[in-house]
Amino acid sequence: MTMEQRQDHEQARLWNGVAGAAWVELQATLDALFRPFETRLVAALADGADQTVLDIGCGTGATALALAQCLGAGGQVLGIDISEPMIAHAQARTRHQRTRAPVAFLCADAEHHAFEPGRFDRIVSRFGVMFFADPVAAFGNLRRAARAAAQLHLIAWRHPGENAFMTTAERAAAPLLPASPPRAPDAPGQFAFADRARVRLLLEEAGWRDVAITPLDMECRMPESALEPYFTRLGNLGRLWPSLAPDLRERLIATVRPAFAPFLRDGEVCFTAACWEIAATA
Predict the structure, then answer these.
(1) Which letter does DSSP use for residue 18 in this model?
(2) What's the burial of 41, exposed, middle or buried (CB within 10 Å: 0-12/13-18/19+)?
(3) Comparing C-alpha atoms, which of 231, 220, 230 is closest to residue 265?
(4) Which helix (H) or strand (E) segment is 210 a member of?
(5) What is the pLDDT of residue 31?
(6) Is residue 260 pLDDT above 90, yes or no?
(7) CATH fold of 3-281, please?
(8) Distance, CA of 213 to chain centre
(9) pTM assigned to the model
(10) What's the Cα-to-Cα distance from 28 to each of 18, 25, 61, 133, rounded to whole Å?
């Protein structure tokens, strides 16, 4: 098995296991938390446009549904994700959430899926493109699925050092847990697109042109009551949580929760998400 195959397998295992289940469980919280990014992706569309749009790493469907509500009746949206539980949840949402344009969801790996060539006018993603084992191959596959002059519009995380909120739980919990191996900066994961120069090169190598990568800082909020479920279900700590003994869980909560004090304000958790906004043309 090659390194890329091992990474593909690990991502599929993760998102069809504990991580996928957590995102389904916390769907409402996460939708609200990341709505500013959804709004930005939707705002780039002309209202009522009859476009065919692909949402990469669509998760439980919030962005795809919002896009479908913005498009005209002649448009359509396809959301794709490797997580079966998340796609099932997204499909269930379509049964009670009407949209102006049709929306469909597909459980598949966008890196390898055989899309119809030249199908999409626009390809978007909210934090869904940092997990490819071979990003050049993945974006080459997406380039072939795009029509001539189609637009690519992505949002991805900048460096973890600029995203203190996202690393607080892991840093606070570290003294109570076995040491983890150092994370390779370019390995598939939340911060794999932190290096702007690398992202530009891989997109250009995959055949995209007019690549523009600009810093994007967005204010995110959630109720303070959602904080404990957030850090015990998501991220590296969330992945370990099911295997931890009850007494260790109690110690971790007592240690980790106070570490978020700088982000608490008037009953809310508030932080600035430091991201890249990435645009390119097919």
Answers:
(1) H
(2) buried
(3) 220
(4) strand 209-223
(5) 97
(6) yes
(7) Rossmann fold (3.40.50)
(8) 17
(9) 0.94
(10) 17, 8, 11, 29
Which token pair is 37?
């990014």
Beta pairing, strands 146-157 & 120-126: parallel
Alpha helices in the chain (DSSP H): 3-15, 18-25, 27-33, 35-43, 62-70, 84-94, 135-145, 164-173, 196-205, 227-233, 235-240, 246-259
Beta bridge partner(s), residue 214: 277
| Token pair of 234 as six digits | 């998501």
Residue 148, amino acid = A
Nearest 10 degrees: Cα torsion 85, 112, 151, 15: 20
State the average pLDDT over residues 14-33.
94
As a whole number of angstroms, the distance between CA 180 and CA 185 comes to: 14
Q: Tokens for 1?
A: 């098995």
Q: Which two tokens stand for residue 16?
A: 């069809």
Domain boundaries, the chain: 3-281
What would the DSSP string read from start to end of 166-204?
Answer: HHHHHHHHGGGSPPPPPPPTTSSSTTTT--HHHHHHHHH
Residues forming beta bridges with residue 32, ordered by sequence position: none
State the Cα–Cα distance between residues 203 and 37, nearest whole angstrom. Answer: 21
Q: How far is CA 220 from CA 29, 33, 37, in A?
A: 11, 6, 9
- The Cα 38–Cα 124 span in angstroms is 10
